[in-house]
Amino acid sequence: MKDKPIIIVPGEIHTIFYEILFKSLKRKKFKSPLIIVTSKKIFIKKMKKFSYKKKIESISDIKNQKSFRNDRIYIINIDHKINDYLSRCFKETFKVLKLKITNKFINGPINKSKFLNKKFLGITEYISKNFKIKKNAMLIFNRELSICPVTTHLPLKLVPKKINQKLIVEKILLVNNFYKSQLGIKPNIAITGINPHCESVLKINEDVKIVTPAIKHAKKKNVKVSGPYSADTIFQKKNRKKFDVIIGMYHDQVLTAFKTIYEFDAINITLGLPFFRVSPDHGPNEKMVNMNLSNPLSLIRALEFLDNK
Hints:
By secondary structure, the protein is of the alpha/beta class. Helices cover 36% and strands 18% of the residues.
């Protein structure tokens, strides 16, 4: 198969994803065929809403689907009225990925509090569990600068208990391997400290006890990594130019500054999976559904990234 399809789970029924999908497809042509796992009824309704026209072809037996064309959109229909609609969408998608029909997967924004029901920290962990992957990383990717939080959607008071040398090294190696294998470069990686200014008034300073040894360990594995750096200055312009990736200790430590700088020009990539999983770097934004005001740039970047794989 010359160009493997991109399989897409739009996510919530009430989401801006359909809007940004049709905007993306209007603005740019992609060579990869698209398989959408969704309610066919909802999808066609949204197509009409946003004035997008393309032939729709339903897939009833994915195992025997011999070819895919990019002059149409393929639909794996899931009844949106069933209670486990989202779960079914993901399960059908996982089947396709396990059959190796494609290795390119995008999911739209998910209301994590409802769907995950506190069983997983985020979609990264949910997908990893379904593929029995223990080592993963959340990379918020921009070709100019990317970030990776060591802990993801973890309550702040639990962060110090979770962080350890092994986990930091794990994230460093996953990021380093991704850049080398997918982008052909040896990345320059910066590591932030846990504490303000990497200092502590307590007897134990985690930046000295945990972070610094982790960096030294990664360096022995021929990784270009340095730190720990104070999180309040690492994102200054002169510092950003020095690095390809900044690995932070917790979610908002790196995502807040990153999203302020790059806004929608970034994608969320799960590292460690046997396929490419990418999602737009924003939520479902239910307040803006059907308003036709949402920015599609993040989804365009996701489609561009997978279109070249």
